[in-house]
N-acetyltransferase domain-containing protein
Amino acid sequence: MPQASLLSYFSKPTTSATELQRRKVGQSVGDDKPVSIGMPTVPSTQQADIPGIAEGINHRSAKQAATGRTSTEKRDTNLEDQGTNETSFEELPDQSLSRIIHVPHLPGAFITTIQKAHIPAIQRLTSTTLPVRYGENFFTSTLSEPVVFQLSRVVLYGSDPVGWIRCRLEPCSANHSAPLSEQGPSQIYIQALALLSPYRGLGLATILLDAVLRSPIAQADSTVCIYAHVWEKNEDALDWYAKRGFKRVMLLERYYKRLRPGGAWIVRKELDAG
């Protein structure tokens, strides 16, 4: 089953932070109708052939020759915020993976790791925003797979999930059978990124992405890039990524079966060794 990253195309947000604060916190996630729709990711057979990956590895290898560091590769992600380019957040001092990120400009909203209690609401909001239907395991494995757990976050407003991001770590090489620790450079791939429409334009998707990029996995020398897929006609999303350092790498023709035209751009951001 193909996987999808949200915000492949979306509308301009119309809800302000003040309006959100006046809303009842305990609203039903299933009642919101987000306008963003996620797109499938590149099949695993195509991932190793993405142009520029080898160049990125060579660039990182040259860099580590001077610094003595090892390389890893990262993938790009899809984001939903259009109206907010600059975001601020406060990360509570906590050495555990369950650190909480508060959003100062939106009291009541915070970002944290995904817990079992969040899964039902995440399933509902995903089903309303993505054309792809996921099996139960896609959601529950977010908790059971350690690397995916570390690279995934949920946005809570009050106690309700209103958005989330799910990522995985993949090898840059075609040797997928070997453990990641033995495969050399790795890349981060965003499998799903969703926000309910009233919460767009508030910087929440940017903070979700930043939370992934600040993770120990993303900061590792062996993680070299992060990438996503965007529908070819979604100029707003393509512009959003461009403003955040992503570059168009390849156009995959007839990638989406339900859209016309069906092409998808691979957008990628190289990650610094730190």
Confidence is low (pLDDT under 50) at residues 1-14, 23-87, 91-96.
